Amino acid sequence: MPRxxxxxxxxxxxxxxxxxxxxxxxxxxxxxxxxxALLLIDGEPHTLAVGTSANGVKLVAxxxxxxxxxxxxxxxxxxxxxxxxxxxxxxxxxxxxxxxSAGPGGHxxxxxxINGHATxxxxxxxxxxxxxGQIEAEKLGLRYLAGRRVxxxxxxxxxxxxxxxxxxxxxxxxEVRDVEAIVIxxxxxxxxxxxSFLNRFQMRRENDVMTLELRY
Length: 216
Description:
Elements (H helix, E strand, L loop, with lengths): L2 H17 L5 E8 L3 E6 L2 E6 L3 E2 L2 E7 L2 E6 L2 E6 L5 E2 L10 E5 L7 E6 L2 E7 L6 E4 H6 L8 E7 L2 E15 L2 E11 L6 E3 L1 H4 L2 E6 L2 E6 L2
Parallel strand pairs: 11-16, 12-15
Antiparallel strand pairs: 1-2, 1-8, 2-3, 4-5, 5-6, 6-7, 9-18, 10-11, 10-14, 13-14, 14-15, 17-18
């Protein structure tokens, strides 16, 4: 067989394999209004505008806090803080990385769960520990009154608070156990992810993307 024809045949055999390569896991890690989203595709962050693609994943639409993506020949709806969409065997993943995108005002927020109950988090590198308002703590079913009573400083002066240990704190696919937290009076807009959680991670930031890599 002529060499040129042989090369053409080999290319013909190779191209379908490359074209058929598909991601195995896609997760929504942030939204930039109604025009773009931060997707974690097989562990790598990608910012996609609606209608664009990366690594075989197309962002079809953004609606009601969810992202509609197309990959592996089908469409899926992804929600912040939910388990990733997957193709192939549903094997449990030991994820060690959290990728967050900055929202309005440059703040990093995300959905997650405390002891299996969904809640919203705000990264606060200036907070000593995870901080939860009493109203949210009651919604989460935390028995904070059994915790150690301490005094904390608020805008209105010293106030009683309760130091507790959270059995499970999950963000995306990453779960950290036995996290110190403080329950403070009143209502906080979100649970503050302070250093009792953040110190478990190696943190790096590139522009508007923050990556947390679990240390242990």
